[in-house]
Amino acid sequence: MTLPTDPLAELRRRVSREEINALPIRRYEGEVRVIAHAHELAPALADIRQETLVGFDTETRPAFRPGESYSPSLAQVATARAVYLFQVQRREVAAAVAGMLSEARIVKAGVGVADDLKSLKKVIEFAEKSIVDLGLAASRAGLEQTGVRNLAGLFLGFRIPKGTKTSNWSRPRLSEQQIAYAATDAWACRELYLRFRNLSLL
Prior knowledge:
Blueprint: H1 17-22, E1 31-35, H2 41-48, E2 53-60, E3 72-78, E4 82-87, H3 91-101, E5 107-110, H4 113-120, E6 131-133, H5 134-140, H6 148-156, H7 176-198
Parallel strand pairs: 1-4, 2-5, 5-6
Antiparallel strand pairs: 2-3, 3-4
Helix pairs in contact: 6-7
């Protein structure tokens, strides 16, 4: 599958499941830090504050019973150097994420961000700024599929595995598979933003 070069003339509108499954799997291979306590925040925030763009996503423990729901367990933030997984069940950690989301200087790029923000506001209040929803940008460009996996296939040429999406994200100690999955989603959002910007889709 070739990547589009001209966003108006050659932009593909959709990708089939078979095409996605034929793509090579990619996972984020850089540094990942899980932030569970207040004393772990400073290095992560120092890195994030150097950025004008981060990838952003959240994970929530799945609910399988009618009427059952949970608040977000994790907020993922990808910089050019690392991905930080903030365990937002702790209020001081959630407050740090809220501060980052309220920072106008830093663009936060994700897919389906409105739902992520709505869920996070059940944990802590904030007024978000400089949010870019890549799914909405793709829809405005005429794409029929706007999920992060389809967008990664179309624009980045790789497949994101999704095996741990419905795992228990509220566990105090995340598994290696959970960490890799969560980091990859945030990293892919940052990479997609850069690709969209190059294609003048933002």
